[in-house]
Amino acid sequence: MSKFIIIFITAFSASTLTGCWNRRELDTLGFVTALGVDRTGESKIEITVHVAKPFAIARATESSVSPEKAFWVVSSTGSTAFEAIRNLLLQSPRRPFYAHNRFIVIGEECARAGVGDILDLFARDGEARRLARVEVVKGSTARQFLEQVEFELERLPSEGGQGISRYVQEGVSAEPVDCTLNSFLRCLEAEGVEPVAVRVEAVPKMPAAPGSVGDLLRDQVKISSKHGGAAVFKGDKLVGWLDERETRGVNWVTGKVRSGILVIDQPNEKGKLVSLEILRAPRAS
Amino acid sequence: MKVERGKISGSQLMALLVLTRLVPVTIEFPSVTGINPPQDAWVSSLGATLLSIPVILLMAHLSLKYSDKTIIEYSQLLLGNFFGKIVGFVLVWYWLSVAATMLRSVGDAYTTAIMPETPILAFIITMALLGANAARSGLEVVGRLGEVNMLVVILFVLLTLSLPYKVMSFENLLPVLARGIKPIMLPMGTAISFFVEFIILGMVVPCLNDTGALIRSSLGAVAISGAVMTAFTVVLIAVFGPTLSSLMLPAFSLARMISIGEFLERLEVIPMGAWTITVAITLAFFFWASAVGMAQLFGLRRFQSLVYPLAAISVAFSILFFESFLDLELYFNEVWVAYSLSVTLGITIILYVAALVRGRSSASGKVTRLCRRNR
């Protein structure tokens, strides 16, 4: 009898416990790798996302070169950030999935108007992670930046951005600040500290000589980006920019410098410069 | 006539008590304490640990006076049949309501964190079944479960605490007590009111194979769980700083911050494992205590048949008591302190005073003999 019950329970659970309500198949998700925020007219918020195209990436590894872009850029607007994100669903056949988002890019105008209410969404949302980096585009909107910028060496722009921001963590360079959403919010919330985000700029590349065919068959990268310097906030509003040298100063003060180059005048010969590499800097926790 | 014949060791009792205390720690501590500024949360948890030591000592001492009886039995002995039974019912109610809040916490944690569209009952009923099934097997089984799994939970907790080392900055701990001691009084009370759940040890004492170990293991439980709780708050403050107070599930959010070399990531499953293990075993412990208590109140010979009905009642409570997760947090912030402290401390003090009075008026042996005759 008891054997029968055990068999019954096993069969019953096996047939009912096959999955859960919130099951999401991998091929129904669109992985967002970077996300941009702007404010447009009529106090609307515009969200621009990079969605990775897995098939394009896969094809590229098969035949070594693929002319197809490995990502899809799409924007949508809404009265709040959440509404804008939900409106993306109207255009995206795969549900955007934010857990792998690496960057939150903010347009300059939007940053000057204040970002607290927008970032709050990403701080509280169950999918987004607080490890995404916060960047502010100098002199442009996030939409323009995300639509144009690519890197020669990486198929996904977010991979390129990730590669550059890795230098700060590894301590190869001291110039950009390292700013995750978590540290941004922490500084925003704390008394006596104001947040500093990464400054990014679109950098136009020289157009190649007509007719020349490079190894890259895909569209020539016309605009790339530069991550350096810092965007200074007061409260949640952007108030100014720091250049690379000033940013290194910030990193000295906050104890984040681990390595980098210092260029100084040579003491005993006028007009000449000496570069010093920082090898060991005292690190604050 | 003994309802529970099993025997457990002191270290098993300690493990069960530690797990009991770790339920709120791994799920919603320190947000439940509603502390502001959150930088002081670690002071309040340290203070709460220290302050609860004398309380737990009082409970243990009281139970040791009647080491062959459960708290349900000796409250009838001390206060007489009528008032003693009232105390017993209050205690059983208390354990059931604690079980209900635990069920609700873990159910809400699961639905908030990862599966928002799944009905909360799916988790609550599964947990209650897990706990009730273990409770039916008696204290020995629950004790062994606790002993084995405490180490697993502690390992999980240590992993969650140590892996996000990259994002910690300990200057967040400063300033200490910027607004003085006053704003941490109530949070400290909340933390203590979780410790006083240890009144459940009054049910275990007659089942201990060495009653001398009672004080040692209950104090050990306070020390271990207090240390874990304090370490947790320190790390949480170091990682999240002042934004800590806006987190619903701090331990879960902490695990989301783990990123080592871009491959050791997305380890949310660690705190979730800790939730499941701690809640299931603690539920088993509380269901067992309420069932045994109920059986003793009604003079039943077996407690096993009471476990499933009591578990079902606490499932119903967990749905009926709270409307939402916020409601649960509000309950912990505002009601729980008064409720938990008045029930446990009130009962302990009343019983202690009664024991002192009885002890003075007649030799305690005489009382016990009298009582045996009454039976």
Helix content of chain B: over 70%
**What is the second-level CATH architecture of chain B?**
Up-down Bundle
Remind me, CATH topology of chain B?
Answer: Amino acid/polyamine transporter I
- How many helices of chain B does DSSP assign? 13
CATH homologous superfamily caption of chain B = Amino acid/polyamine transporter I
Q: How many domains of chain A?
A: 1
Spell out the blueprint of helices and strands.
The complex is a heterodimer of chains A (285) and B (375).
Chain A: H1 2-16, E1 29-40, E2 44-52, H2 54-63, E3 71-78, H3 81-87, E4 95-97, E5 103-106, H4 108-113, H5 116-124, E6 133-137, H6 142-148, H7 157-170, H8 181-189, E7 196-204, E8 223-234, E9 237-242, H9 244-253, E10 260-265, E11 273-278
Chain B: H1 10-27, H2 41-65, H3 71-113, H4 120-136, H5 139-162, H6 185-195, H7 201-204, H8 213-240, H9 250-256, E1 259-260, E2 264-265, H10 269-298, H11 304-321, H12 325-361, H13 364-374
Give structural notes.
The complex is a heterodimer of chains A (285) and B (375). Chain A has helices at 2-16, 54-63, 81-87, 108-113, 116-124, 142-148, 157-170, 181-189, 244-253; strands at residues 29-40, 44-52, 71-78, 95-97, 103-106, 133-137, 196-204, 223-234, 237-242, 260-265, 273-278. Chain A has 285 residues and is of the alpha/beta class. Chain A has one domain (25-206, 217-257). In chain A, helix 5 (116-124) packs across helix 8. Chain A is globular, with a radius of gyration of 23 Å. The model of chain A has no long low-confidence stretch (mean pLDDT 81). Chain B is mostly helical. Chain B has one domain: Amino acid/polyamine transporter I (Up-down Bundle), CATH 1.20.1740. Chain B has 13 helices and 2 strands. In chain B, strands 1-2 form a two-stranded antiparallel sheet. In chain B, strand 1 and strand 2 form a beta hairpin. In chain B, helix 4 (120-136) runs antiparallel to helix 11 and helix 5 runs antiparallel to helix 10 (269-298). The longest helix of chain B is centred in the N-terminal third of the chain and has 43 residues, at 71-113. The A-B interface holds A 20-22, 99, 123-124, 126, 129-131, 180, 182-183, 185-186, 189-191, 284-285 and B 112-119, 122, 167-172, 239-243, 246, 253, 256-257, 259, 266.
